[in-house]
Amino acid sequence: MKRFASIVLIMFLVAVFAPCGRAQFKKDAFSQSYNNDDPKAQKDSVEKLFSFEEYFGGLKHERETRIGTLFGGSAVFIGGQQIYNRDYWKLPLVYGSILGSAGAGVYFNRTGRNDIAKYCFAGAGLAYWATLMDGVINYKPDPYPHAGKATLYSILLPGLGQAYNGEWWKIPIYDGGLMACLYYYRFNTLNYNRFRRIYIEASAGSSYTGPISAETALYYRNIYRTYRDYSIVATLLVYLIQVIDANVFAYMHDFEVNDDLSFNISPTLIPAGVQICSQSSFDSISPLTAPASFSAHSAGQCSGGQGVRTNGQAFSSAAGSLYGPGALSAAGVPSGLAAGMPSGLAPAAAMPSAFGLRVEFNF
């Protein structure tokens, strides 16, 4: 029982300090510019795991505090989440339940009533867990689902993060996996202790008359000890996987997955003055003999749903359109449209109307 309690404590401590680091999955991860000349931007981009200034500034209501920082600080400075959430009336309940139960456990332990002391310590741990859970529940983030909140839910109660994300079907998988791992941990531990006892008795002297020899007992003791250790590793893996799952799928909740990878080619009339890309944006665009192929370079990119991207700025349109010869335009741009364009996009020199091929792509 003590070994099992130690495993649970280790899992909890690892999980408590894990969310202080910010995950790097961002919805704008594929549109960042990594050539920024700003000296500040060239510093290490990994955020601090924990900031006392941020934590205590949040407790004084001088700034917003990330949920990971708030949770990590409140794991040590108990009651911090309730202060940040302005639930001041809960503080007597928090300190009274935790300190009262722990103090009663110490008293009964000193007086020799260890059975009662165990229940008191368990009550203190339950009150501590409930305090952290209450702080996570009452934290009010703007977006839903909030990745930090989903992560902490899964840390405090496996499967709760999946329920928060609306992925109910995953709960039986993860909880069933954890229960199976814990069952085999208990089974292997019982057999390890059994053959360990037999080995000690068989090796003590001639008083042992059991059917199992010391060599056989030693063999099975080692086997079940190995299986017990495997059960511990499997339990930790399933626990961490469901925490990571809750975090990642909360981040990717609004990520759009479109199976439409089609493109359409149709003849079109290129009006005069419609060309909106300067020559610096695209080095080469193939002529009408191969109008569907072009090469985009560092100054400009063409991506579905954003039309033209120049110097990190997007010209929004429903679909990108390629006009030949040598012109890139967003669909439906009227002739001579210059006002309101992003910097870097300017009408090219006027050219006469011409026939060409229009390529619309969706990806």
What does this entry show, briefly?
The protein is of the alpha+beta class and 363 residues long. It has helices at 2-17, 52-59, 67-76, 80-84, 91-110, 114-137, 147-156, 160-164, 171-204, 214-251; strands at residues 263-270, 284-285, 294-295, 300-303, 307-310, 313-315, 320-323, 327-330, 354-361. The strands form three sheets. It has a four-stranded antiparallel sheet, with no helix packed on it. Strands 4-5-6 form a three-stranded antiparallel sheet, with no helix packed on it. It has a two-stranded antiparallel sheet with strand order 2-3.
Descriptive overview:
- The chain is α+β, with helices and mostly antiparallel strands and 363 residues long.
- It has 2 domains: 2-77 and 141-251, no CATH class; 263-361, no CATH class.
- It contains 10 helices and 9 strands.
- A 4-stranded antiparallel β-sheet has the order 1-9-7-8, with no helix packed on it. Strands 4-5-6 form a 3-stranded antiparallel β-sheet, with no helix packed on it.
- α6 runs antiparallel to α7 (147-156), α7 (147-156) runs antiparallel to α10 and α9 packs antiparallel against α10 (214-251).
- The relative contact order is 0.08.
- Residues 16-36, 39-46 and 275-351 have low confidence and may be disordered.
> What does the largest sheet look like?
4 strands, antiparallel
What overall geometry do the principal axes of the alpha carbons give? flat
Instruction: Give Rg in angstroms.
Output: 32 Å
Tell me the domain tally.
Answer: 2
Q: Strand arrangement, largest sheet?
A: 1-9-7-8
Kindly report how far apart the N and C termini lie. Answer: 56 Å
The average pLDDT value, as a whole number, equals: 73
